Amino acid sequence: MAMHLRVYPVPTDTEQSQGQEPSVRVSLGDLLPLVALAHRHNYLWLQDFLDDEVTITPDLYEVLRSFRCCRPSA
């Protein structure tokens, strides 16, 4: 039996296409190992979230910015 392709219309509502509002708080210690594992194994679902923004504290931002500019050589 041949499978039939179903075509669904693209939502025109801009609010729906922009995604959900963030509402869950997660510690960086819980989040990083999961994201690193997904990245290491190249899980495709991770790409769906690459444009999402996260909110971090100003001190973490400064540390990350400094680290990005001045990484020590191994």
Polypeptide structure, described:
By secondary structure, the protein is mainly α. It has a domain at 28-69. The protein has 3 helices and no strands. It has helices at residues 14-17, 28-40, 58-69. 0% of the residues are buried.
How are the secondary structure elements laid out?
Layout: H1 14-17, H2 28-40, H3 58-69
Overview features:
elongated, single chain, 74 residues, mainly alpha
Mean pLDDT: 82
Helix percent band: 25-40%
Structural class: mainly alpha
Radius of gyration: 19 Å
Question: In a nutshell, what does this entry contain?
Answer:
This protein has helices at 14-17, 28-40, 58-69.
